[in-house]
Amino acid sequence: MRKFIALALMLLTLTAFGQQTTDVYSGSFQNTAIEQVINDIEGKLSYTFYYKKEWIDSLTFSGNFSNTPISEVLTTIFDGTTIRFYHDSKKVFLTNGIAIITTPEIVSDLLAQHSPQQAEQPAEETKELLFTKEYAGENQNNNDLENFVFEVGSRAQFEGGASSTMVGYIKDNSTGEPIEGALVYSGNKAAVTGPDGFYSLNLTNGRHEIQVQFTGMKRTKRKIILFSNGRFDIDMEVDVIALNEVIVEATRRANIEQVNTGIERLNVEDSKTVPAVLGEKDILKVATTFAGIQTVGEGAAGFNVRGGKSDQNLFLFEGATVYNASHFLGFFSVFNSDALEGMNVMKSGIPASYGGRLSSVFDISAKTPNKEEVTVEGGISSVTSRLTAEIPIIKEKASLLASGRLTYSNWILETIDHSDFKNNKVNFSDFIVKYDHQINQENRVSLSGYLSEDKFRLNSDTLFSFSDFSYANKMATAKWSRRFNATFDASLSASYSEYDYEFESTQLEKNAFGQDYGIREFGAKLDFNKDLQSPHQLNFGLEAKRYDINPGTKFPIGSESVAGSISLSPEQGIEGALYVSDNHEINDKLSLNYGLRYSFFTYLGPGITNLYLDDAPKNPDTKTGEIIHDKGDFIETYHGPELRFAARYLLDDNSSVKLSYDRSRQYLHALSNSASLSPTDLWRLSNEYIEPQVGDQISVGYYRDFLNGEYETSVEVYGKKLSNLVDFKTGADFLLNDRIETIALQGPGKSYGVEFSLKKDGRLNGWFNYSYARTFIKLDGSFDEETINNGSYFPTNYDKPHTINLVSNYEITTRFSVSYNFVYNTGRPITFPTGLYELNGIEILNYSDRNEYRIPDYVRMDIGLTLKWGHRLTKGSHSFWSVSVYNVLGRKNAFSLYFDLDDGEVQGYKLSVFGSAIPTISYNFKF
Amino acid sequence: MRTIRQNKYFGIILFVVALIVTASCVEEFETDSIKYEKLMVVDANISDQVKAHSVRLFYTVPIDSEVSQGETAITGASVWVEDDQANRIDFTETSPGTYYSPSDFAGTPGRSYALFITTNDGKNYQSSFQELVSSPEITNIYNRYHVELGDGEATSNPGVQFFIDVENANQGSQFYRYEWVDTHQIIVPYPKEVEAVHNGQRYTVVPFDGDVEECYRETRFNELVLATSTNNDNGQLTEVPIKFSSAQDFDVTTKYAIQVTQRSISPEAYSYYRKIELFNESNGSLFDKQQGIIVGNITSLNDPEEEVLGFFEVSGASSKRVYLDLTDLDPAVSEYIFRVCQEYGALSFDGSIEDFYAALDVQEELRGTEVSRRSQFLIYRVGYTGEYMFSHRLCIDCTRRGSLGKPDYWELD
Questions:
Q1: Which InterPro entries would you find in this protein's record (chain B) (predicted)?
Q2: CB of A496 within 8 A of CB of A524?
């Protein structure tokens, strides 16, 4: 203590702001750029200078030093410039025109107590920002910006005990890009940056430590003294060394702070070291290791979130709906992770600004391209090659992202000299472009486009099935964001999504036909954020969508074909929603986020309503007539409120409890008669017979951090009540079916479960979770053919009670890390044959009640190694190799069980997608 | 029942995975844990063809047992059919669980029929009424070269696919189920007169008295073949695939016949069979149709909850049989038919039978091949000079590929 006081007294007497040391320096310069001089000093004395390049770009220096003390050297160099410096042991901080005062915090506190006038003085004099050097913690941090005490606001306007609002932008220091979704917090006050990196935090006046974190970026902190309302921008550094910092990072503190339950942010970097099948890093696949997110089987498309059906997830890419998120029918997601920024996964507590699906939202955003310099990233795995480029168009203002991914399986197929493979074609590709223009601090425009395509051509093994199949997603978005002032911003976006598929069967010339399906969605959204200052933050807006669906057409191919043309009448509908929500901080401990979304849907003409006998099952035999609707007629309209509510109560610094309730309505249904989502599923609209699905979810959780957030734990319990889930009569065929109501069944569902989750940060990082989850459906129609399992609740196809996920990564060195995954889940339900009989000379199996049995449990372990080169972003390119072994135990996990009859004997078969361990090597680069 | 992996999607997945890692696999799985559900099955069929129509009543059997078990038959029931004019046709039980109509019974097109059953414990069952719609004639039966791919193991099987055309398909119910019976005639070129008997030490040649020159091999459909003309513009059915015959089936065939029976069935029956067809195509992929119990048109009058399997099918039937020489097959298939008797021919040999099989008359370096070739041969005759005549065993004894006795219909129709 005495040392500090002595030091303080010494500092206060200094006329030049700097500190004496014994280092001496020699050098001779003639009109040399100051940066070069700095580099020379850095080299000779192992010093580090901190500065912004543009401050010294134009400066040169001429002069000689010979064993000159460093403080004198610095004074000489910057004499006559606007540059001021602060020098501390081996570090030199430069500022442009701002004086630096080093006052140890404790000393200033002491001084403040004992002689307030003196302590105030430097601030009064400098008026601007005041840098204060603090000794505490100096040895723990690499970045000394973290140890300065910044003053925010004007000391003159300081009012003790009152609170003020601090606003600012969080940016990536290497690209100048704003960072969306960064968490800015102090104590238990937190804010998340918006799309333009803007945050607003209300704090009591006085001393705070502001923490900023975002996955893929180095966590940083700033010490501030808040005097009054003021602006404070923070630059974050890319966490290049810690490529593997995982989710834990993003949700640090968010675990307990965030008001909503069940929301997680996943950054692309997180998926890099998770061993993936065939080496395709895949952000959506990583999501399936989160508690409550499951798939039906290995390589199955579609997610089941907390017992929801696979069509109940809203996938958004840059705000446009994605109708089929899978390549290769489910093995890979349609997104090239290199071009993605990240993804928000919401499985409960869904904000009022999202709607249209019952179970979850996967909000995926493309990277905002680098505006400073060209970067190229790419990789080669066993399935694809991919390349992503970020190109500045107008430096610091506009830039372009272009990304593409292609399979080369076709080429492999061509080279295989085997007649059975010769004519096969299997390939997929996807492309992303994004143009981002930061017009000025207030206005920003971004345009993005997306295209993906899958094509299959197979030698047909029978005459009866199709031979060509292709499907494609197309999306485009335009978005204009505008900030009106520090507390009010808005965005306007327009989007277009299209999903089509087509298959052809041309094996039999006379019956050759093609069949297609397509859905188009036009969307517009206007969204406002208004910060009413503490304690209310409002978000409100409106959204409108139009759907145009071609439910199916069949057409003959070739002049020989006699196949008839069928064209189902197109469907069209409009969906709209108004929403408003308020983030209300009642006090330091209790925070609420409540909102209301009111959605409506209209099924539009032209169209035909089939009429059926009142007291008979709907089928072609009971049809009594039809009503024809003209274009633009409102055939059927549905609407209803969707309440969203979330509350968080901080129990203490390290724990909180949360509660959320939300209701959602869904007007669009994927008709799927198979266990998983398939590319031939048809999205159809609610109509006069198919009612909207409605879901209510209540979720309660307890969250606790240990060891200063190194460990995050949570327990969440949820219950869901669903109505009008769409299912089908047994054996129904819905392709080219104009009367969906004759095969569809609707019934209530219920899901409940508990999720335990543990996440760890540090060199050994990763997450572990266990979920117990059940989900049931009831199909109890008035007639036999509309009733399944006697009308009682039965487990859905995706009911998997026990799930364990472990994803871990250990950084042995900064360049070398190992990872390990473990997955366990209960086998999914399945319908088994329970009897055998012969009819008309044909042997037939009779089946049990639907989903009465289960396939065997699933267990899988993966291991991976990642080796990096050139891991400093500033030093040109860097690359990494990853080697992984998927399913290292080689366990033959059942994908399904099925039965064949052979001469009257039933043989059960177990089908495994991966019956052995799968080693993969992939190479990734960035420069 | 076919085991074809018919599902395209899964084919793709397996293919992709196999291409890259050869990792997917299918293995057998024990079915012991599955319980057995005993349900009544009604296999009943009447048509406008004059014959004794049958109704079979039995229970399902556990999946790990064989279908053909007599003890599952439901005996002692009263079974009758009524038409929409209340005419009653009684069926009598001639073997356990199988009930026949009078042999002069034929349904009348335009009439509707329902099946009634009263079991010996007093339970009553009834089907819905089904109209008999006569079936148009099959216009044409023809074949075309086709390669059937095996179960994903890249085996291919060349042969011929038989198709039919029906010009006036819209004159029937438009929904059809097909049955086929095919017959291979086998007349061997070297019918055996003698045979060699091995007494443990050596062969002795003894006369053979039987007539094994001419045989017939009959096979029947064992899977559902369905077609509908509702989707076709001109009301015709064209290129309906009926049956695939592998080229190797014709190795010793001298003449071939195929009969196709077309049954004009109700839309309800069609959709019932279609579900069965879909479930039987199951191959374990996630894209399989959701399976479940398939209930037909028979209900229990005493217990509406009781699920009765099977269907009372009422059909108008028309049959067509064609006879084909090998030259009538698609010429493209001929190179895949291994004509055993032409390839092997007959051999005469002067030495002992033992020497023949040891091929001692052949150069030593060729002997191995010749020994294995000759192992296919059998003696069929002793020549005039006492030499032994050998030929491929399929070419001296037709019973190896067929059965004796010409079918009643052979070349009469």
A1: DUF4249
A2: no
Contact A562 B232 (CB under 8 A): yes
pLDDT of residue B165: 94
Give the residue carrying structure tokens 């294995």.
B372
CATH numbers and ranges of domains, chain A: 18-98 (3.55.50.30), 263-926 (2.40.170.20)
Element (H, E) at B113: strand B112-118
Q: Chain B residue closest to A428 (CA)?
A: B16
More confident residue, B235 or A329: B235
Q: Of A168, A129, A180, which is closest to residue A441 (Cα–Cα)?
A: A168
Mean pLDDT of chain A: 80
Q: Where in chain B are the domains?
A: 40-132, 140-264+323-400
How many CA atoms lie within 13 Å of A393's alpha carbon, on the beta-carbon side? 14
Strands A163-172 and A198-204: antiparallel
- Are A458 and B15 a contacting pair at CB < 8 A? yes
| Closest partner CB to A837 (pick from B60, B295, B305) | B60
- Structure-model confidence comparison of residues B288 and B121, the more confident one: B121
**Closest residue in chain A to residue B286, using alpha carbons only:** A675
Secondary element (H or E) of residue B390 = strand B388-392
Instruction: State the best of A412, A836, A885, A912 to mutate against chain B, taking most chain B CBs within 10 Å.
Output: A836
Looking at CA atoms only, how far is residue B242 from chain A in angstroms?
11
If pLDDT is split at 50, 70 and 90, which confidence band does A253 have? low
What span, in angstroms and rounded, lies between the C-alpha atoms of B220 and B216?
13
**A148: closest CA among A187, A106, A192, A104?**
A104
For B289, which of A419, A731, A784 is closest by C-beta distance?
A731
What is the number of alpha carbons within 13 Å of residue A307 lying toward its C-beta? Answer: 31
Rounded CA gap, B52 and A419, in Å? 51
Model pLDDT, residue A769: 93
Helix (H) or strand (E) holding A121: helix A116-126
Q: Which helix (H) or strand (E) holds A493?
A: strand A488-505
Burial of B50 (0-12, 13-18, 19+ CB in 10 A): exposed
pLDDT in tens, A423-436: 566 788 999 999 99
pLDDT band for position A132 (cuts 50, 70, 90): very low
Q: Residue B19's pLDDT band (boundaries 50, 70, 90)?
A: very low
Q: Do the chains contact at B61 and A837, CB–CB below 8 Å?
A: yes
User: Would you say residue A630 has pLDDT above 80?
Assistant: yes
Torsion of CA A732, A737, A741, A745, to 10 degrees: 30
- Residue with tokens 């698609």, as numbered in its chain: B330
B197 compared with A896, residue with greater pLDDT: B197
The answer to whether residue B151 scores a pLDDT higher than 60 is no
As a whole number, mean pLDDT of residues A7-28 equals 52
Checking if the pLDDT of A625 tops 50, the result is: yes
**Any CB–CB contact under 8 A between B288 and chain A?**
yes
Q: How many whole angstroms separate alpha carbon A835 and alpha carbon A853?
A: 14
- Alpha-carbon distances of A255 from A264, A374, A582, B363, rounded to whole Å: 9, 36, 20, 87
Cis peptide bond upstream of B407, omega within 30: no
Q: What is the pTM of this model?
A: 0.73
Q: Give the Cα separation of B321 and B258 in Å (integer).
A: 5
pLDDT, mean of residues A476-501: 92
State pLDDT tens for residues B22-44: 445 677 777 777 788 889 999 99
User: Phi-psi region for residue A358, left (φ > 0), alpha (ψ -120 to 50) or beta?
Assistant: alpha
| Angstroms from A785 CA to nearest CA on chain B | 9
The torsion region of residue A722 among left (phi > 0), alpha (psi -120 to 50) and beta comes to beta
pLDDT score at A881: 83
Judge whether residue B265 has pLDDT over 90: yes
Classify domain B40-132 by CATH number: 2.60.40
